[in-house]
Each structure stands twice: as structure tokens, then as C-alpha cells.
Design brief:
The structure holds two protein chains of two kinds.
Chain A: H1 2-19, E1 29-36, H2 43-62, E2 70-77, H3 82-96, E3 100-103, H4 107-120, E4 123-126, E5 143-144, H5 150-163, E6 168-174, H6 177-193, E7 198-205, H7 213-222, E8 226-229, H8 234-246, E9 251-254, H9 260-266, E10 276-279, H10 288-301, H11 307-326, H12 331-338, E11 342-345, E12 348-352, E13 359-360, E14 363-369, E15 379-386, H13 395-398
Parallel strand pairs in A: 1-2, 1-3, 3-4, 4-5, 6-7, 6-8, 8-9, 9-10
Antiparallel strand pairs in A: 10-14, 11-12, 12-13, 14-15
Chain B: H1 2-23, H2 26-51, H3 59-76, H4 82-104, H5 109-129, H6 131-134, E1 140-141, E2 147-148, E3 153-154, H7 159-182, H8 184-194, H9 196-201, H10 206-232, E4 234-235, H11 242-255, H12 262-280, H13 284-298, H14 302-315
Antiparallel strand pairs in B: 1-4, 2-3
Helix pairs in contact in B: 1-7, 2-7, 2-10, 2-11, 2-12, 3-4, 3-5, 3-10, 3-11, 4-10, 7-10, 8-10, 11-12, 11-14, 12-13
The chains are: A alpha/beta, B mainly alpha.
């Protein structure tokens, strides 16, 4: 009897679940799907990115919306798996007619979304997927990157290293496509602008390495003046935590240095103070528009925007500009409007190159200092910028052959 | 009488399927295509689990292998016909099924389950590390080739066209699986599950029967995998991971392993629940797990048992196929 009762309950709950009203999307809005990992290991990054898109939508809607319609953000949990992201996105396209997608975590998700966008004729853009190949040999007309790339970041940091007069550099990165692309671009730029600067040590370690001892020993033995790395998350914190006590005291140049969560996780500011980074958006950029945005964000949310949120916000505002210029949400028209469009936003002027849909953006340098107005722990201070022109990769070099 | 009834039901289902594109929206049609593909996968799994009593934790390796081979073939052989892409996927899984089956055929029970798990892990590792061929974490994107029928060519870009192709080919494969259970070979499998010693005594080589069954179910799973790639136009390591085996295990259990059509129902419920639940909450696997545990605890016969019970109550007659083991069927 008990068995029957529970069995019945089980069936009933299944039927009830099927009957649950599924959060139907509003009819007359401009919908934008945001594919981010909203569960699992990278949940924190995904949520900080989503935060920026949501805030952009809020700002747009407060200002009367886009083309008279409200912008509706549809979060899509990609679980950082390309098949999950594309499957959910496909459902949104077919069911709700969603035409715009964005996302910032996982170049694998981005590459699959770009292919889906081309097949379904929707638009996918990214503010945080950095693999240069996405607007290089894998480029397509439905994919835009109003954000940084490994090329741009490495070029900017290489220029900074040379400008500061360092002559012997050690470089270390994760042993997968991202790390290799980042280090290759760095070496290329160093060779172009300062042949006398030597790479004294080049190391690759598996992503998620726990013991940096052997790598740190090699770096110290090579006696560099400075260290360059594109590492992020644990691969950055462990390198610092294990390297500094061993005597790896050189200045570090890193892609994602101004990550408040990473710095807090370090637990010891002295390990990271003095390190420098280059980002397409940083909280300390001394532009009027950025100050206005950062202050308004703080006023609305009672916390400072993360670098993820800032990037996502700026890119989403750029997308909104493209829609405004097109005057319609028709995909072909928006693609046409976005190509060549310039956007004077918080992070300076961003221009969308028509040939490969790679945003031509300036990179902002930061240095980690002890005293800052944002957090109790050490955080960034502005150190100038590299203009978009100075880090430009010519269209021919990207390997992009876009079918129009 | 029974045969006739079943043929009637099959024809009715195909006709109903043929009219679906007129009724359903694109979104639901998309889901239905997915359901048909996973129904085939679940049916092939159940031939092992329900009919032969072999619990496999490695069925995803065939599914994934078929999926990856089809994708790799389409990418690397320009102008490859759709048929050949599917054929390459299926033939590869036949070979893989035969080779792996030869290594496994002497094992049963927990040993068999763990060995299949190990082989699945091996395939998964290859798919993850062999970046240049499988795309690793990035996966592979393809474009469905057009279907060439000799005299004419049908564009497969349209979802409706692909739905019809799936309905016909995958539907036919499901019917063939059903037919298989009624052949002498299919009955051997049942008898083997019930009393292998006796079968051996009667002069059957049970190892060969098991190898044939393993290869056959592998090939069917490979066909499902091949269609999975064509449907999503994308394949990633998820298709060959243990998660995929878990999914098919859930489908078989939720639908019921004791009838042929139980897993089909299971696939239907699983895909729909997955779509609805993942819309509502990010924690949908938790609910799926809850359903699975409750099903196993309280309704071990799955949904098909429930339906059979209801039918029995309403019409008061005992179906000779229902609620009981598939083995009771005309043995």
C-alpha cells in the first residue's frame, strides 16, 4: 500500500512538473540570451558577467528602451559545455524568436554558438571569449567580438614591458590553445618592436597545476627582469603563492590581474602588489563616461562593478548602439549597421572592424597598489593605455575570410 | 492476432508522426526529432538491459563513436553524401562493438558493468585529448549535407525535412529492433538471461549470441549517435561521456525495462522533462535524480507498468505482454 502511495505521488509530481507554467517570455521586447556558466566551478565568473548585461539592460530600459521596446535579458546556463549552450539557444530561437545572444566564458562555447548563429541567422557577440582564432580563421558574419583578444592583450603588455625597459623576460602559460596563442602573440610583438629584448624562459604547464615548484625554479634560474603570463584564477594565485616565497620577486605582467575575487583569494596583498595588467575595461579608467558609469552602478547596487560586469556592460551598450543605428532588429540590417560602427563608451572609442568583426579597442594598463578607494584589499590604479591603433593586427594577418 | 495488432499500431504511429509537422510548431518539432533519436538509443540500450539482463555503463561509447565518426567524415570528406556519413558512423560502431564485445563476452554482472565503464572512460579520454580530430573541449560543428536520392536532392537545412528523414530511418530502426526481439536470435537472448546453463547444455554457444547482441545494440546506438550529430549539427565530448550513459539508463528505467516500448516512453518523458525543468531551474539534474530514485524504489517496472496496471483495471483483462517480464512473451 505504501509503495503504491509513493508510486502515485511520484507520477503525480512528474505530471505537475510538466503542467508548471514555464516562464513565458514577454511578447514585445528585444530579447538577448546570455550564455554563461551559472552553475558549477565557473559559476562566479558567469554571474559577474551576467551582472553587467543585466545592468546594461536596466540602463537602456530606464532611458526608454531600444526602438521603443524594452530589452529583456534571458540567462542561459551553458554549464560551460558547448552542446548544452547551443541546445538551449536553439530552443530559444525556435520558441521565442530570440535573435541576439552574448556570453563571455569559454571560447569552446563561443565557437559553437558562432556556428549556430550562422546556421540560424541570429547574432552572437562576446565580451570575454578571448581566443584570437574566433575572429581569425573561424570568423563568420553572424559573430561579433566587441572585446579583447589574446592578440590585443599580448601586444599591449609586450609594448608596456618594452617601454618600461625590461630586457630579459620569462613567459609562462597554460598548456592549451589559449596559453599557446597568448604566448605566441607576446613573443611576436617583442620581436617586432624590440629585438634586443630576450625571452629567457618559456614554460607551459597543464591548466589547474597544483605544484608550481619546478616551474618557479626554472624561472628563477633564468634570471629574468620581468615575468609575463596569461594565467587566471587558481593558476595565477598558486603561481604567486608558491613563487614569491621561493624568491620569484620579479614584476608580473598578467592578462587578468585586476580580478577582485582572485586578489581576495590570495589573502596576502604583498604577493601581488606591483603586478601589472591590460584590460579593455577597468574600474579605474580616468574617462568621464567611465566615472559616471561606475558611480551610478555603485549608487544603484551598493557595490563596485567587477571587471567582468564592466566589460559585459560596455559591450552590451555597443550592441544597443548597433540596433539603434539599424533602426530595426532585422539580423541582416543589424550586421550591416554594426560593421564599421564606432562607439564612444566608458572605455574610450571602440570600432567594429567590418572585415573580421573584431572590435578595435584600446587596452588600459593597471598596476596593483595597496591603497585604493574600492576595496579593503589591494587593487588597481590606472597606468595609462595602449591605443587601439598601436595593438592592431592587420586583417590579412588574422586569417579571416568572411563569407558575406 | 497479436502480430496484426502491433503492425496496426506501428502504422498508426508512423501516420501520426507524418502529420506532426502540420500541427506542431518548429520548437516542438525540434523536440520531437530529438525524442525519436533518443528513443532509438534507449531501445538499443534496453535490448542489453531488459532483454539480455546485461547492465552496461558504456553504451555512450557507441553513441558517441557514431556521432563523432559522422561529424569527422562530413568535415574531412568534402561532398560526402548524407547516407555515407551515416554509414561510416554505423560501420565504425559495428567494428568497435565486435572488438570490444570479443573482449567482454565472457563477463557478466558487475564485471561486465565495470569493464564497459572502463571502455567508455577510454573512449572519452581519447575524445578529450585527440584535439586535432575530435576538437576536444571545443567539439565539432557540421552542416547537414543535402539528401541525394539519385533523381533529386532534398535540402536538409529545413527542420521539417530532417524530421521526416529521422521519422523514416530512425523509426524503421526501432521497428527493426522490435522485429529482432521476435527472431530466433532475439529469443535466444531471452532464454540466455533466464537460464544460461541450460542453453549451453542444449548446445547453444552463448558467448557468440552475446557477442552478436552486443555488436547489434552497439550499431543501433551508433545510428542514434549519427542522427544526434545531424540533428544538433554539433557534437562534443558530452556525447561520449558517462553522462550520456546515465541519461539513457534513466530513460530506460523511467519508461520501464520490462517492455519493448517502455524506453521509448522513457525517452519521451526524459526529453520533455529535461526541456521544461531546465527552463525553470538550473538544478534540474537534482529533480531528475529524485524521479529516478523514486521510480526505482516505488515503481521498479517504470511508467509502462503503471500504464499496464491502469489498462488492466479499466478493461479488466490481463495483457500477456504487460507488467511481466518480456521473457514471458511467447516463450
Amino acid at each position: 500500500m505504501r509503495r503504491k502511495f509513493f508510486g502515485g505521488l511520484c507520477i503525480l509530481s512528474m505530471v505537475l512538473m510538466l503542467a508548471l507554467p514555464v516562464g513565458a517570455l514577454a511578447q514585445d521586447t528585444i530579447k538577448i540570451g546570455v550564455t554563461e556558466p551559472l552553475s558549477g566551478t565557473f559559476k562566479d565568473i558567469g554571474e559577474r558577467y551576467l551582472d553587467g548585461v543585466l545592468y546594461a539592460a536596466q540602463v537602456i530600459n530606464e532611458g526608454g528602451g531600444l526602438l521603443g521596446k524594452k530589452v529583456e535579458v534571458v540567462p542561459v546556463d551553458s554549464e560551460l559545455k558547448p552542446d548544452v549552450a547551443t541546445r538551449k539557444a536553439q530552443n530559444l530561437i525556435l520558441k521565442d524568436g530570440v535573435k541576439f545572444f552574448t556570453g563571455g566564458t569559454g571560447s569552446s562555447v563561443g565557437a559553437a554558438m558562432a556556428q549556430l548563429a550562422e546556421k540560424q541567422n541570429v547574432i552572437m557577440f562576446t565580451y570575454g571569449m578571448d581566443a584570437a582564432s574566433m575572429t581569425g580563421e573561424k570568423c563568420n558574419k553572424n559573430f561579433f567580438r566587441p572585446g579583447g583578444s589574446t592578440d590585443g592583450r599580448s601586444f599591449a603588455l609586450a609594448q608596456l614591458v618594452v617601454k618600461m625597459g625590461y630586457k630579459k623576460i620569462a613567459i609562462i602559460g597554460q598548456d592549451y590553445s589559449f596559453g599557446h596563442e597568448a604566448l605566441a602573440a607576446f613573443k611576436k610583438r617583442i620581436a617586432q618592436i624590440s629585438p634586443s629584448t630576450k625571452i629567457v624562459c618559456e614554460l607551459y604547464h597543464p591548466a589547474g597545476t597544483k605544484d608550481y615548484g619546478p616551474y618557479v625554479s626554472q624561472i628563477i634560474a633564468a634570471k629574468p627582469d620581468a615575468i609575463f603570463t596569461p594565467n587566471w584564477g587558481n593558476d595565477l594565485t598558486l603561481l604567486l603563492k608558491q613563487g614569491r616565497p621561493m624568491g620569484m620577486n620579479q614584476k608580473i605582467f598578467d592578462y587578468y590581474i585586476n580580478d577582485e575575487v582572485t586578489i581576495e583569494a590570495l589573502g596576502n596583498d604583498s604577493l601581488i602588489i606591483g603586478s601589472m595588467g591590460a584590460e579593455i575595461w577597468t574600474i579605474s579608467m580616468p574617462t568621464k563616461k567611465n566615472e559616471a558609469f561606475v558611480n551610478k552602478f555603485y549608487k544603484d547596487k551598493k557595490r563596485w562593478p567587477s571587471y567582468c560586469a564592466g566589460k559585459a556592460y560596455t559591450a552590451t551598450m555597443f550592441w544597443a548602439e548597433a540596433i539603434k543605428k539599424a533602426g530595426t532588429t532585422d539580423v541582416a540590417a543589424v550586421i550591416k549597421a554594426w560593421e564599421g560602427l564606432s562607439f564612444d563608451g566608458p572605455a574610450g572609442v571602440w570600432t567594429m572592424r567590418a572585415g573580421d568583426h573584431q572590435g578595435q579597442v584600446p587596452y588600459w594598463y593597471t598596476e596593483i597598489v595597496a591603497k585604493n578607494k574600492y576595496f579593503k584589499h589591494a587593487f588597481e590604479a590606472p597606468r595609462g593605455m595602449a591605443t587601439a591603433k598601436s595593438v592592431e593586427v592587420s586583417l590579412a594577418e588574422t586569417g579571416c575570410k568572411m563569407k558575406k | 492476432m497479436k502480430q496484426k495488432n502491433t503492425s496496426f499500431i506501428i502504422i498508426a504511429l508512423f501516420l501520426a508522426g507524418a502529420f506532426m509537422p502540420l500541427i506542431l510548431k518548429q520548437y516542438h518539432l525540434n523536440m520531437l526529432t530529438e525524442i525519436i533519436i533518443f528513443a532509438l538509443f534507449a531501445v538499443s540500450y534496453n535490448l542489453l538491459l531488459g532483454y539480455a539482463g546485461l547492465l552496461s555503463f558504456g553504451h555512450a561509447m557507441f553513441f558517441g563513436l557514431g556521432a563523432f565518426m559522422t561529424a569527422v567524415a562530413i568535415i574531412h570528406i568534402p561532398g560526402l553524401a548524407l547516407w555515407n556519413a551515416i554509414l561510416i558512423g554505423v560501420v565504425t560502431t559495428i567494428i568497435a562493438g565486435f572488438v570490444i564485445g570479443s573482449l567482454l563476452l565472457r563477463h557478466k554482472g558487475a564485471y561486465f558493468a565495470l569493464l564497459t565503464l572502463a571502455f567508455n572512460a577510454l573512449f572519452y579520454a581519447v575524445a578529450t585529448k585527440w584535439h586535432s580530430v575530435t576538437g576536444g573541449d571545443d567539439g565539432l560543428s557540421i552542416t547537414r549535407p543535402d539528401l541525394s536520392l539519385g533523381f533529386t536532392s532534398i535540402s536538409m537545412a529545413s527542420l521539417t525535412h530532417f524530421y521526416y528523414l529521422t521519422l523514416i530511418i530512425v523509426g524503421a530502426a526501432i521497428v527493426f529492433c522490435w522485429y529482432f526481439t521476435h527472431t530466433a536470435m532475439g529469443k535466444t537472448v531471452l532464454l540466455m538471461r533466464e537460464n544460461e546453463e541450460r542453453m549451453k547444455f542444449l548446445g547453444y554457444n552463448t558467448n557468440i549470441s552475446r557477442l552478436l547482441l552486443f555488436t547489434f545494440t552497439g550499431a543501433v546506438a551508433g545510428l542514434a549517435g549519427s542522427f544526434y550529430t545531424l540533428h544538433f549539427q554539433f557534437v562534443s565530448i558530452s556525447a561520449i561521456s558517462v553522462d550520456m550513459t546515465t541519461a539513457v539508463l534513466l530513460m530506460a528505467f523511467v519508461g520501464g525495462t520490462k517492455t519493448f516500448w517502455g524506453p521509448i516512453l522513457g525517452a519521451f518523458v526524459y526529453i520533455i522533462l529535461q526541456n521544461y525543468l531546465s527552463n525553470i531551474t538550473d538544478r534540474w539534474p537534482l529533480f531528475m535524480g529524485f524521479i529516478f530514485v523514486s521510480m526505482v524504489l516505488f515503481i521498479p517496472g517504470g511508467l509502462s507498468e503503471v500504464i499496464m496496471n491502469i489498462r488492466q483495471r479499466l478493461f479488466g483483462k490481463k495483457d500477456n505482454n504487460g507488467g511481466k517480464s518480456a521473457a514471458s512473451e511467447e516463450v
